[in-house]
Amino acid sequence: MSVRASRKALAAFALPGCITLGLFFLLPVGTVMTGALTDGGAFVRLVNDPVFWNGLKGTLIIGTAAPLFSLVVGFCIALTLARLAPKAKTAALIAVSLPLTFSGLIVAYGFILLLGRAGFVTLLLAELGFDPAVVGGFIFSPFGLGIAYSYYLVPRVVLIVLPAIGNFDRNQLIAARSLGAGAARAMIDVMLPQIAPSLVAAFCLTSAVAIGAYGTALALVGTQVNILPLVLYSKISETGTDLPAASAASLVLIAICVLIISLGEAVGRKGKASGA
Amino acid sequence: MPIVAIAYFLFLFSPVLLLALGSFGESWSNTLLPTGFTWRWYEEVAADPSFRRAFVTSLQIVGITCALNVLIGLPLAYAIQVGAKGGMRFAARLVTLLPVAVPDLVLAFGFILVFSSDQLPWLGSFWLLAAGHLVLTLPYTVTALVADMEQLRLDEYEHAAATLGAPFLARIRDIVFPLLSPSLVSSMLTVAALSIGEFQLSNLIAGFLSRPYPVVLLQAFYGATGFACAATIVLLLLATLASLASSLTSRLSKTKKEAAA
Amino acid sequence: MTLRYENVSFTYPGAKAGIFDISLEIGKGELLAIIGASGSGKSTILKLLAGFVSPDRGRIVIDEKDVSALSPEARRLGVVFQNYALFPHMRLWENVAYPLKVRGVSKTERRNCAVEMLDRVGMKSRADDLPAALSGGQQQRVALARALVFEPQGLLLDEPLSALDASLRVEMRDEILRVQRASGIATLLVTHDQEEALSIADKIAVMRDGRLIQLGTPRELYETPADAYVAGFVGQSNLWPGMIRADGVVETGIGSLACDTRGHKPGDAVTVFIRPERIVPSFDGAQQSADAGRAGGYFSGSVAADRYLGPIRRIDLNVQGGLIRLETHLRDAVTSVHVPADAIRLLPAN
User: Fold this and answer.
1) What is the pLDDT of residues A69-108, one digit of tens each?
2) C: neighbours with 3+ CB pairs under 8 Å?
3) Residue B242: which residues within 8 A CB-CB, separation 6 or more?
4) Would you call C98 and B256 a contact, using CB atoms and an 8 Å cutoff?
5) Per-residue pLDDT tens digits for C212-255
6) What is the mean pLDDT of residues B69-82?
7) Does the distance separating the beta carbons of A208 and B199 come in below 8 Å?
8) Angstroms from B164 CA to nearest CA on chain A
9) Domain ranges of chain A
10) Under CATH, which number does the domain A50-275 receive?
11) Which residue in chain C has the smallest CA separation from B86?
C-alpha cells in the first residue's frame, strides 16, 4: 500500500493503542450504556425524578451561557491577537492557552478568592454598597459557574477562531469600506460570514466541555448546584444508589454531548469544503 | 476590542494573583487582602504526609503516563498518519473527539462498573489510575503528532530516504525519530501538564493510598485559606512549568523550521 | 544500464487518473524528459520507476531485470525531489553520505566520498552546514550530489527547477546537464516547462491524459509535432483548421495555401501548422500579393499586437478571415507577410 511502511508494520503499530482504547475507553463506556439499556425501568425512574429535570435544566443553562460568553470574549481576544506583531502574538497566545492545562480545582479556588462570599471583588463591591450575600452568591449559581468555566473555555475559543481570522484576508474589509460600508457593517457583512463556521465549531466544542465538566463545580459548591454531572456524581459516589438510573443519566449526558459535537463537525466540515 | 482583551487578561491573572497572595498571607478572613507575610503554609503543605504522598504519586503517574504515551501514542499516530486515507482519517478524527463526547465523569463511572468486577478487580490500584490518565491524554498525543507529521512533510523525507537505500527500520531510526523528537518532547510536556492537573477521573477511581495531588487538594479547600492557597499554588506551578516548557519547545522547533524554509 | 517501461498501466485506487500502456526506454547516458500539463500523468511515470507505486499491468525493467515488485530502497535509483527533501537535521556531508551509511560504509570513508561529491557540485566548502543555511540553488546541488553518490543505476529528476528563480533556472539547468553527462547515467526528467526539456533532453515524451502522445528528439517534436496539442504545447504556433482542395493546395480561413499535401486526398480535413518564425515579413510584398493573389502565399493586414521581446518581436497580424502570428528580428513596421509553402505542415484535424 504505502512505501513508508508495510500493512503489517502499521497494524502492529496501531495495535497497542487500539487495545488501550478498547479496554480502558470502549469497554467502560459500553458497560455504562448497556447498563442503562438492559434495565428497562432505568429511564422511567430517571424521568420521574425531579432532581434529574432540575439538573438537566441547569446543565442546559450552563451549556449555553458559558460557551456564548466565552465565544464573545474569545472572539474579541482573537481579533486583538490577530493584529499583534508575531512575537507579541506568540507570547500572548502562550499566556492565553495556559489555563487549558490547569486543573479545574485551581480555577475553583481562585474564583472563591475572587468572587466568593468573602472574595476580593465581593468585598470591594460591598464598600460601594452592594450586598455581599447577593454578590457572593452569584458565583455559586449556574450563571456564575458559567463565568468560572469560561476561564478554560475562552482559550479553546481563541485557539479555534484565531486561525480562521488569520486566514481571512483583511483587504476585504478595506475593500468593503472603500465601497461605502461602515466599519461595523463591513465586519458583519464580509468577515462574519467567512469565519462563522469556526465560531460555530468553537461554540459546540466549548458547550460540550461545559456540559460534561464537574470538577470546578464540585470544588466551588459541592453537590449543591443543580447540574446534571453533579446529580450523576452524587449518584455514583453514594453507595447503594440506583446504578442503572445513573447509567441512564450518563447516557443522556453522552447523547447531549454527541449531538452538539456532531453539529459542530457538520458545520465545520461544510466551512472547510466551501473555504477550499 | 483591546479593552475586552485587557479585561480578559485581568480576569486571567487575578485569581492566580490572589492565590499567590493568599499563600503568603498570615491570615485572611473577611478582609480585602491577606495580612502579614509567612512561609508557614508552604512548610505545612510540605510537612503534611498525605500531601507528600499525593505529590509523589502524581509525579509517578505523570512519568508513567508520558512514557506510555510515547510507547503507545507515537506508533498509533504514525500508523494513522501513514494509513491516512478515507476511513483511517475518520478514525483519527473520532479518536480526537471521543474524550469530549464522553465526559470524564461518565468514563469514571464506567471504570467503577468494569474494574470492580471479579474478572478485572483493578479499581483503586495505581496502574488503573495510570491507564485512566493514559486514555485521557492519548487523543491529545495522537492529534498533536499527526498534525506535526503532516506539517513536517515526513512522507517526503521518508520517500527520499527510501530511494537512497534506507530500509524501514533505518528510516524510522534516522529520519522519523530525529525529525519528530521536538514535537514529541513538546507533546509529552503538555501531557504532563494535563496529567498533573487531572481531577475528574482520578477523584472517582483512585484508591485511598494512591490519590494524586489534585484529589487530596480538594480536602484542603475546606481548611485554612492560606494552606489551601499554598497547596493550590504548588499544583499551579507544576502545571505552568510543564505547559510553558511545552510551548517553548514547540516554538523553538517551529522557528527552526521557518528558518529552513 | 537502461531503464525501461514495458506496456505499463496504472490507475490510482478510486480515481480515474493514471497512465495507460506506456512503453519507454532510456539508454545509458541518455536524458529523457517527460513533459505534459499537470494531471497528464508525468509524475506517475516517475513514481512508478522510483517504486512509490507499482504498475497494475506491464513491467518496469532496470538493467534487463524486472523490478516491478521491488521496493524503492532496493532499486538503486537516485531521485532529486521537487523540494529537494534534504534531511534538515543532518549536515550537508551527512545528507550526501546517508546512502553510504545505510550501505554500511565506514564513517571516514563515507565522509571522504561525500565531500568529494560535494566538490563536484561546487559545495565542498559548505560540507558542515545544515540545509537550512542554503539557498534553493545550493540545496539543488546538494540534492544532486546525494542522488549520485551511491552510483545509482538511474537518475530521476522531479520538476527539479520549478522551485528556483527564473534567473537561476538556466544556470542550474546547465549544471544538471554537466553532472549528468559526466556521470554518464540514464536520466529521467519530469517537467512542465517545455523550454527546459527542449534545452537539455536527448529525447522528449509528451504526455496527455495518461497517454504518451509523442516521443522524439527536441527537434522532431518542434518541427514535426504529431498533432495540434503537441504543436501548441511545445513552442508557439499558428494552427488553422483547413481542408485539402486539390493536390498541393489547402483551403483555410485566410485563403488557399500551397503546400505539400502528400498523404492526404482532396476533401480531407486537416490542421494547418506553421511556426511563427517561419513566416516572412514582406516589405515590397503588398503589390505582389495583389498581383499574385493569396494563392501565392502573400497576405496583408493590420497589426493587432506587436510584442517587443528583446531579440525578436512577436506580431499578430489581422488579415481577412483570420490571424497570422509571426516572429521577426526586424525592427520595421510589418503589414505584409509571406507564408512559404515549405514551412507548412499538415496535422490531423482536431
Assistant:
1) 999 999 999 989 888 888 888 888 888 888 888 888 998 9
2) A, B
3) A101, B189, B190, B192, B193, B196
4) no
5) 999 999 999 999 999 999 998 898 999 999 999 988 899 999 88
6) 94
7) no
8) 13
9) 1-38, 50-275
10) 1.10.3720.10
11) C14
- The class level of CATH for C3-225 reads alpha beta
DSSP-derived secondary structure letter, C313: E
Q: Over the stretch A203-222, which tens digit does the pLDDT of each residue have?
A: 999 999 999 999 999 998 88
CB-based contact B76 A18, cutoff 8 Å: yes
- Per-position b or e across B43-80, b if 16+ CB within 10 A of its CB: ebbeebeebebbbebbbebbebbbebbbebbbbbbbbb
Of A24, A101, A120, the CB nearest to B243: A101
Listed by start position, the domains of chain B span 18-25+34-256
C120-127 average pLDDT score: 93
pTM of the full predicted structure? 0.89
Q: Give this complex's ipTM.
A: 0.92
CATH (residue range B18-25+34-256): 1.10.3720.10
Which residues of B touch chain C, with CB atoms under 8 Å apart? Answer: 153, 156-157, 159-167, 170, 174-175, 178-179, 256-257, 259-260
Name the average pLDDT for chain A. 88
Q: What are the tens digits of pLDDT across the range C30-47?
A: 999 999 998 899 999 999
Check CB contact under 8 Å for C132 and B162. Answer: no
* Closest alpha carbon within chain B to C152: B164
Name the DSSP letter for residue C211: E
Residue A179 to chain B, least CA–CA distance (Å): 24
Q: Calculate the alpha carbon distances from C253 to A250, B121, C64, C258, C269 in Å.
A: 79, 91, 52, 14, 13
Nearest-CB residue to C79 (from B160, B174, B178):
B160
CA distances from B174 to A9, B153, B253, C84, C113 (A): 17, 15, 18, 17, 20
